[in-house]
Design a protein that fits this description.
CATH architecture of the largest domain: 2-Layer Sandwich
Number of helices: 8
Radius of gyration: 19 Å
Number of strands: 16
Bound molecules: ligand DP6
Strand order of the largest sheet: 8-7-9-6-1-16
Structural class: alpha+beta
């Protein structure tokens, strides 16, 4: 059978997915909206082999084990069921950025796996079907399937997938990421989504999403950071408030996280146009104009506890590439 390789970018959500109404199907409690990060790429090669008795999965040069392996095998099983094939697979995946730091490596990984595995199984899914399939493996992965700025909404298996709201060249928004930790997070978002409804703040955050989503969509349409930024900051803080107050509670922040959040607000008060958001990790994503990105990067590097700074503009969707990893 064919060997197929796909590349995908992680995405940063301006309105977050945090909490599921259906854990089997990964149906989200609220719509979310993100931008693919073109500077960060995950590449995945898949081949279904007649002579293998188990799936072999290598991620960043290490054999996958435990929950990581189980999630990939479950996704290969979904693909095998769709393609009516029995063969086990050889999967090799490489992240061009640190995994497990809130840089959403599972989104890029499962978007790339969805395209590579379905093509390797002889299937040719359209974008909505591919996004729907990626969602079953990891919710945020459905938003790495289309290109650019993507909205994931829908409350049934059929209607729940991501679609593009603006292409990557619509707005050269920059995400300058202050990396304050490279440690693999202790609790992944899989459990976090499950615990979210135990927070007394959960229902209030979900209820606040429609108005914040409107502001973010308007800001993207009008390429206006001052319209989308405040809404993105509010939703990121609301999500972390839910995380912190769920049972068990999740405190992803490091001391340097707070340093960066305070600095962003102080710089904004001085006139720099910059807003923050965060995922399920301690790193801080700073949203700014490309003209101010190098100044933001320079200032972030000077802050105590900032280990590295990554910068990215909007990226394309999942796609096939020629160079196989094995
Ligand atoms: C904080 O998509 O990683 O990044 O469906 O369990 O794989 P699973 O969760 P995942 O959750 C993403 C959480 C987030 C917010 C977001 O990207 O919307």
């Amino acid at each position: 059978m064919a060997k197929v390789t796909a590349a995908a970018h992680p995405n940063i959500a301006f309105i977050k997915y945090w909490g599921r109404v259906d854990p089997e199907l990964n149906l989200a409690a609220n719509p979310s909206l993100s931008m693919n990060l073109g500077a960060l790429t995950t590449v995945t090669t898949v081949e279904f082999c007649a002579d293998q008795s188990v799936d072999v999965v290598i991620i960043d040069n290490e054999p996958a084990t435990g929950q990581a392996l189980a999630r990939v095998v479950a996704h290969l099983d979904r693909t095998r069921a769709l393609g009516a094939i029995q063969h086990r697979a050889h999967v090799v995946s490489r992240n061009g950025f640190p995994a497990g730091t809130g840089l959403a490596s599972s989104a890029a990984g499962f978007a790339a796996l969805s395209l590579a595995a379905t093509r390797a199984a002889g299937l040719n899914l359209d974008e909505a079907a591919l996004s729907r399939l990626a969602r079953m493996a990891s919710g945020s992965a459905c938003r790495s399937v289309p290109a650019g700025f993507c909205l994931w909404e829908g409350d049934s298996h059929e209607s729940s997938f991501a679609r593009q709201v603006a292409p990557p060249d619509h707005w050269d928004l920059r995400d300058v990421v202050a990396v304050v930790s490279y440690k693999h997070k202790a609790v992944g978002s899989y459990d976090g989504h499950k615990w979210a409804p135990t927070s007394p703040l959960y229902a209030a955050r979900v209820a606040a999403v429609p108005a914040l989503l409107d502001a973010v969509q308007k800001g993207i349409q009008e390429r206006c950071l001052d319209t989308m930024g405040p809404a993105a900051e509010t939703d990121a803080l609301a999500m972390h408030a839910v995380m912190m107050t769920s049972q068990p509670g999740l405190l992803y922040w490091a001391a340097a996280t707070v340093t960066v959040l305070q600095a962003v607000r102080a710089w904004r008060a001085e006139g720099l146009r910059i807003y923050f958001t965060m995922d399920a990790g301690p790193n801080v994503h700073c949203l700014c104009d490309p003209l101010e990105a190098s100044e933001v990067e320079r200032r972030l590097r000077d802050l105590e506890g900032v280990l590295d700074v990554l910068s990215s503009g909007p990226g394309g969707g999942v796609r096939l590439v020629e160079d196989h990893l094995f």
